[in-house]
Amino acid sequence: MAKITAGVGTSHVPLLGRIIDINQSKTDDWKPIFSGYDFTREWIKNEKPDVVVLVYNDHANAFDMTMIPTFAIGCAESYAPADEGYGARPVPVVQGDQDLSWHIAQSVIQQGFDLTIINQMEVDHGLTVPLSMMFDQPEAWPCKVVPIMVNTVVYPAPSGERCVALGKAIRNAIASYDKDINVQVWGTGGMSHQLLGARAGIINRDWDTAFLDKLSNDYEELAKIPQTEYIRETGTEGSETVMWLIMRGALGENVKEIHRHYHVPISNTALGHIVLSAED
Amino acid sequence: MAKITAGVGTSHVPLLGRIIDINQSKTDDWKPIFSGYDFTREWIKNEKPDVVVLVYNDHANAFDMTMIPTFAIGCAESYAPADEGYGARPVPVVQGDQDLSWHIAQSVIQQGFDLTIINQMEVDHGLTVPLSMMFDQPEAWPCKVVPIMVNTVVYPAPSGERCVALGKAIRNAIASYDKDINVQVWGTGGMSHQLLGARAGIINRDWDTAFLDKLSNDYEELAKIPQTEYIRETGTEGSETVMWLIMRGALGENVKEIHRHYHVPISNTALGHIVLSAED
Amino acid sequence: MALDKPYQDIPGTTVFDGEMARKGFHLNQFCMSLQKEENRKAFFADELGYMNQWPMSEEQKQAVIDRDLTKLISLGGNIYYLVKITMAQGMSVAHAVSMMTDMSPDEYLEMMKNGGRSPDGNRYVGEQQNG
Amino acid sequence: MALDKPYQDIPGTTVFDGEMARKGFHLNQFCMSLQKEENRKAFFADELGYMNQWPMSEEQKQAVIDRDLTKLISLGGNIYYLVKITMAQGMSVAHAVSMMTDMSPDEYLEMMKNGGRSPDGNRYVGEQQNG
Ligand SMILES: [Fe+3]
Ligand SMILES: [Fe+3]
Question: Which ligand minimizes its atom distance to the CA of B127?
Fold first, then answer.
């Protein structure tokens, strides 16, 4: 049977994708940032996940203002990188896992989640930057991806409690999947950032650190944080961090934190990164 | 404050829209069908709903296979009738209520429903035929509409329990809306029909009648019916009937059945119609 | 197949689930295009040429040309999409639907007028069917 | 306004809620069109002419021409949509963002390098702000 073995949390800052794409990520300037992923890059070579359920938000690329799904699941064969306004990223096309996607879609809808099923979609930096952070610049991505898209652009985003519950439903779905595969769940976005207005540039290191501290064992407490508190404390766009709770919900009760990295700033954003192994 | 005063259930058979559009609905041939709406047409002239929350499914018109929302809410200014393959229906453009739509959207998402927000959309017979059944051929529809779109085309549809729960969440949302308006909720689609395969033409009068009987006071029992039972008993497309449970959930505990009509066949379909007043 | 399919014991129908949606994606998207009058004209003027805009299988394209709805359903077509073809040529939905049964359109309409097909005998595979 | 807005006491930001989404619908859809290279070319060749394809307000169009992001936000623009304009002309997101503050781009970058803007004083309207 399929099994979720680990979870990864990471910011998905577009600038870092750009730095990798122009081959600057090994320079001294960028070392303090990228070296925080050295552990994970080695670790994942051994873990060899077959599929990553990759939770992210679209940033006005696959979705415009016509239709805004709260939760969507990609069920396509593959997903091309989107042109976000300055040409598409020169990264491999992301390969889907249609069997697993449809299995999760059906199971999770029948568990009472009102997913939007997506059969054709491009993917933006929210999905491709985490792949680059973990795998650098391969010819092809070494795993398949099931994209889970969350609305964090139009208020209201789903609540933390709803995100944890969705994670748990995804866990149930994968536990009932009949192929013997190794699945990871990644939660992306955040941490602190405020991209507009007079208060642009907000960074709340203490808040972000507390979030990382509580993610392993006190995630039910994190789940109670309302979107307004994310906005107030970590910046309006910092409320993306709620997506990490889908990852956490998918890992079961017992996890072990095996790596953490935090860096300020990348452009406007605080970068957070964590690796949790599922111990149940 | 806003108040839900009544609910209407009705099939939304496209042929009946066509018969109205070509001015044949008063002929003797069609009298047995349309006369069952005489009561409702008089009743609604007195009730004068300001807004109808109209629950329906799209039939491959506003939505193609690219994105399939489980539950979507229209938040647009207006909704034009779709060209379903033979020209758009010659009926008035449907006027939205953006204030109420966004209020419901925000409230219901925050109650844990994963709605897709729709800002631009055409509407098909699923939405316009019920308006024609109730209002015949006016210059302009006499009420505003908040469309609630439910996926019943791609398996799985949302469960009956989820539909009742969504109805209750819509009820909560409307109870907290600060304008003094009269709101009705309509559930549409069904009843028995099977539009494909060797068993096409299935009609289950007993089952449909039992559904109408139980809708007032035993709707929690109806909510437990799985989609497979709708398919088996009432035909594959008969599973549209689950949408009536959103209407029922929105009416509160106590309702009074004030009208009922049932007719077989319209084309491939059993037509059902019920009017329930909210007594809480 | 990893999908749970509790409806597989129901005879004479095809539930449009993930497996069918995958098979029929391009076929159904082609059908969808017939919502536009200019596309309907282009399709009827050159059916194969028009369909070649979508990466449909040869089998799907031939079944469209043959108006073989039973086959199109088995190839992933969804009935709401497929009837756009027949509606565009002026055929009633009931007529199109009857083509998938063992009845003529008139016999089918007569059955419907008499109260439709009974679910008795049509609930489970192996019962007397379509009776 | 019927929408509950618990974030209204947060200074220096605009939450992109239903009210803003309604105001900015066409503005944001225009921004979205800049995903395509041919549209970016057409926009830069004739900004006003290009924008006239959308029923945007004159105020919105002028604010686009002026690259007045603060004004565009108040007119319903969403930041992810708006930066498509500035990114298309090669401006970094940090530079674009800095234009909404009372700092120069260099001062803003310097603040970020030093750990960013503290939330202290920026949580509630009426506190010392932007400090
Ligand atoms: Fe993001
Ligand atoms: Fe229908």
Answer: 2
Is residue C122 in a domain?
Answer: no
Instruction: Tell me, yes or no, if B144 comes closer than 8 A to chain D by beta carbon.
Output: no
Question: Which of D97, D109, D124 to mutate to probe the A interface, most A CBs <10 Å?
Answer: D97
Ligand (nearest to CA of A236): 1
What pLDDT, in 10s, does the model give residues A237-264? 999 999 999 999 999 999 999 999 999 9
Q: What angle (nearest 5°) sits at the alpha carbon of residue B237, between those of residues B235 and B238?
A: 60
Q: CB B67 to CB A154 under 8 A?
A: no
CA–centroid distance, B112 to ligand 2, in Å, is 27
- At C131, the pLDDT band (50, 70, 90 cuts) reads very low
User: What's the pTM?
Assistant: 0.97
Measured between beta carbons, which residues in chain C are less than 8 angstroms from residue B236? 13, 15
Contact D32 A60 (CB under 8 A): yes
State both tokens at D8: 């209204």
Of B110, B117, B154, the CB nearest to A117: B154
- B187/B55 Cα distance (integer angstroms): 5
Q: Give the span between the Cα atoms of B166 and B53, in whole angstroms.
A: 12
The answer, yes or no, to whether D and C have at least 3 beta-carbon pairs within 8 Å is: no
Is there a contact between B68 and A158 if contact means CB atoms under 8 Å apart? Answer: no
Q: Which pLDDT does position C3 carry in this prediction? A: 82
Angle ∠(C71,C72,C74) on CA atoms, nearest 5? 65
Check which CATH number belongs to the domain holding C69 and give it: 1.10.700.10
The CATH fold assigned to B3-278 is Protocatechuate 4,5-dioxygenase; Chain B (3.40.830)
Can you spell out the DSSP letters for chain B? --EEEEEEEE---HHHHHHHHTT-TTSGGGHHHHGGGHHHHHHHHHH--SEEEEEE---SSS--SSEEESEEEE-SSEEPBPB-SS-B-SSPPEEB-HHHHHHHHHHHHHTT--PEEESS--B-HHHHHHHHHHH-S-SS-SSEEEEEEE--SSSPPPPHHHHHHHHHHHHHHHHT--S--EEEEEEE--SS---SSTTTTB--HHHHHHHHHHHTT-HHHHTT--HHHHHHHH-GGGGGGGGHHHHHHTT-S-EEEEEEEEEEEETTEEEEEEEEEE--
Q: What is the arithmetic mean of pLDDT over D123-131?
A: 74
- Paired tokens of B163: 């539909």
Q: How many domains does chain C have?
A: 1
Give the domain range for residue C112. Answer: 18-117
Q: Is B98 on the interface with D (CB under 8 A)?
A: yes
Window B:54-73, CB contacts with C under 8 Å? 59-61, 64-66
Touch C-A: 3+ C-beta pairs under 8 A = yes
Q: Mean per-residue pLDDT for A218-240? A: 98
Q: Is residue D30 part of a domain?
A: yes
Does pLDDT of C1 surpass 90? no
What per-residue confidence (pLDDT) applies to B17?
97
Tell me A240's DSSP state.
Answer: G
What is the token pair recorded at A217? 């064992």
Confirm if B213 and B37 have CB atoms less than 8 A apart. no
Domain limits of chain A? Answer: 3-278
